[in-house]
Amino acid sequence: MAFDAIVIGAGHHGLILATYMAKAGLKTLLTERRLTYGGGLSTEEVTLPGFYHNLHSINHFHIEHTPWYRDLQLGEKVPYITPRYEFGQAHRDGSALVFGRDLEETVANIARFSRKDAETFREWNIKAEKITTDVFLPERYAEPLPAEERAQLLGRHPLGREFLDICNRQPLEVVEELFENEHVRLLFLFKVSLFGTWLTDTLNKTSPMGSVIRAFDLTTGYQLCKGGSFNLARGLMERYIEAGGTYWNQCEIERIVIENGRATGIECADGRTAKASSFVASTVDVHQTFENFIGRDQLPEGLRRKLDDFKYTTWSLFGLHLALKEMPRFVAESFDPNIRLTQKWSIGADTMDELNSAHEDVKKNKVPEIIQFGSGPLSVLDPSLAPKGKHVTYAWHVMPHSPDLDGQSFEEFKAEFAQKMIDRWSQYCPNMTRDNILGMYVYTSQEYVHHLPNMRNGDIFMGALSADQVMDRHFGYRTPIQGLYMAGSATHPGGAISGGAGYIVAGLIADELGIRKWWKTEDLRARLASLRN
Ligand SMILES: Cc1cc2nc3c(=O)[nH]c(=O)nc-3n(C[C@H](O)[C@H](O)[C@H](O)COP(=O)(O)OP(=O)(O)OC[C@H]3O[C@@H](n4cnc5c(N)ncnc54)[C@H](O)[C@@H]3O)c2cc1C
Questions:
Q1: Which of 20, 26, 378, 459 has the most beta carbons within 10 angstroms of its beta carbon?
Q2: Which tens digit of pLDDT belongs to each residue from 472-524?
Q3: Which residues of 459-484 are buried (b: 16+ CB within 10 A; e: fewer)?
C-alpha cells in the first residue's frame, strides 16, 4: 500500500507524530507490533475485576500544559487530575514531610524540620518558578540549541546564568550544600530523581537538561490521567483516526526498505508491505531501528560507532500492584494528615545512608538489601480506578534487570521481594498487612521487556539520560539515511511521558519537507533571547 508517511511504534511519541502528520493532510500509516497500542501508557485489570492498574507510567509531568495536549484538543477527551500535594515522605519516627503546590504551605511544612531550609527553599522557589516557565519547559518542546549558543543566550542575564550553573553541578552536591536537614535533603532528591527511584545519574553526574530545578518549583508538576494512563493513548488514537490516519497492529517490522540511500517503506513479518513517499519515522529504540530493521552492513561507519557507544539506563523497576480493602494509613498522619493525599510517596529511606545503600547494591547488580520505594494513593486521588470503597496502589522499587539471585528462581525471588516490600510498608502504615490485600500482581523488567522489547534490558527510558546523551548530545532526530527520522525516547527530551520527541519531530519534518503546519511552534532562540529578570 502507498502512504506519504510511516511511523513505527504506537506509544505516545508515535501517536503524537502520526496525528500531527495526518492532520496536516499526509496519508499516514502508524504501525505497532503488539495487539494493543499505547506502549508505556497501559492500564489493566491485572488483580481483580474493576481494579485498574497502570503497569508502566503513572505520574505524567505537566501534561495539560504541553503544546500537543493543547493543539490536539485533548482536554475534551482526556481529563487530568492535579493533586494538591505532590511529594511526601513518611518517617519511622512518626513524622512526615509533604510538598504541595502552595508555597506558604510547603515552606511551613519544611520549617517543622528546619527553619533555615524553609527559607532557602522559599528563595530558590521564586527563581525556579521563573526558570521552569521561561527556560526549562520551552527547551523541552524544541530542538536543543548547540551547547555554546545555549550558554551564550542564557549567559546574558542573571537567571539564565544561575540555571546554567545548576545544570553543571551534581544534584546531590546542590541538595547537600543548600539544605541541612536529612529528611529535607532526602525528599528533594526523591523529587529530582524523576520517578521516586534513586538514580545513579541523579546522584553522581551533572544535569545539563536542568531537571534539578524541579527540586524547587511547585507550580509545574506531576498529574494523573483520569481513569488510568491508557486513556491518554485512547484519546490520542481517537484523534489520529478522526484525522484519517491508518493503523496497523500486530505488525512486526521485518525491515525498513532503503532504496538509493533513501527510506522508502517497510516490510512486516506477516508479509504486509507499505511504501512511504515522504518519510519513515521510528519511535522505537535505536538498536532495533538500525540493526534489526536496516542491518549494520547498510549503515555508515559513523552510525555504527554511535550505536556501539550508545548507553542504556543500568537499572530497572520492580513493580508491585495491589488491590486493597483500604488505603495505606500512615502512623505519620497524626503529624501531617495530608501525607495520605500525596501523589508520590517515598517510603523506606529515612537516612542518606539508607538511600546510598540501595544505590550501591544496584550498581553491584545485587538485590537491594534496604527496601525503599515510590508509591501513591491512586484510587484516593482518582476513585474511578477501583470499585466503590476499595482501592489500588503500587510500589516501584529500583532493581537491576537481572540481579544476582544466588541460585534462587526468579519466581521465588519475586514473591519473596514483594513480601519484603509489604513488610517494610507496614512499618510506616500498620494496615498494610496481608489481610488488607485483595489481590497482588508483580511486574518486573523481565515481564515488561517481553511486552515492550524497545525497553532494552529493562531501560524504561530507552537510553540513559546521562550528561553525554541529553540536550544537543541526544541521539538526533535526523539520520544519515535520507527520509528516515528518529522520534522516540532516544531523542530530546528523552524517555518518560513528555510527548516531546513526537511533537518536535512533527515540526521539524514539516519544516524540512515543506508541509504546511496547521499548528504554531515556538522559536526557542527568540524565547531565550527575550528572557527578562
Ligand atoms: C514500570 C515503568 C514505570 C514507568 N513510570 C513512568 C511514569 O510514572 N512517568 C513517566 O513519564 N514515564 C514512566 N515510565 C516510562 C515511560 O513509560 C516511557 O518513557 C514511555 O512509554 C516512552 O514512550 P515512547 O512512545 O517513546 O515508547 P513506548 O511507550 O515504549 O512505545 C513504543 C511502542 O513501540 C512498539 N514497538 C516496539 N518495538 C516495535 C517494533 N519492532 N515494531 C513496531 N512497534 C514496536 C511498542 O510495542 C510500543 O507500543 C515508566 C516505564 C516503566 C516500564
A1: 20
A2: 999 999 999 999 999 999 999 999 999 999 999 999 999 999 999 999 999 99
A3: bbbbbbbbbebbbeebbbbebebebb
* Identity of the amino acid at 517: K
Pocket test of ligand 1: the residue of 15, 19, 31, 33 to mutate, having most ligand atoms within 8 Å of its CB, is 33
Cα–ligand 1 centroid distance for 168 (angstroms): 29
Closest of 523, 500, 361, 525 to residue 20, by C-alpha: 500
Q: Is the CB of 456 under 6 A from ligand 1?
A: no
What's the confidence (pLDDT) of residue 204? 63
Ligand 1 pocket, residue 9 CB under 6 Å: yes
Residue whose C-alpha cell is 538509493: 260
For residue 252, which amino acid is it?
E
Among residues 293, 288, 248, the alpha carbon closest in space to that of 37 is found at 248
- Round to whole Å and give the CA distance between 383 and 52: 10
pLDDT in tens, 201-251: 556 677 788 878 888 999 889 999 999 999 999 999 999 999 999 999 999
Q: Are 484 and 282 in contact (CB under 8 A)?
A: yes
Residues in the chain: 533
DSSP alpha helix (H) spans, 376-470? 378-381, 410-428, 445-451
Question: CA dist 94 to 39, 371, 420, Å?
Answer: 39, 18, 21
* Residue 446 pLDDT: 96
Which domains are assigned to the chain?
2-38+228-311+461-529 (3.50.50.60), 80-225+313-451 (3.90.660)
* Euclidean distance between CA atoms 505 and 491, whole angstroms: 10
Q: Which atom of ligand 1 is nearest to the CA of 443?
A: 1
- Per the structure block, which three cell numbers stand in for 299? 549503515
**Exposure of 226 in the CB half-sphere (CA atoms within 13 A):** 13
Q: Which long-range contacts (CB under 8 A, 24 or more apart) does 356-364 make?
A: 358/198, 358/398, 359/198, 359/200, 359/203, 359/398, 362/198, 362/200, 362/314, 362/315, 362/398, 362/399, 362/400, 363/200, 363/314
pTM for the model stands at 0.97
Helix (H, G, I), strand (E, B) or coil at 190: helix
Atom 5, ligand 1: residue with shortest CA distance:
57
CB 490 less than 6 A from any atom of ligand 1: no
Please list, residue by residue across 407-445, b when 16 or more beta carbons sit within 10 angstroms of its beta carbon and e when fewer do.
eeeeeebbeebbeebbebbeebbeebeeebebbbbbbbb
DSSP state of 285: -
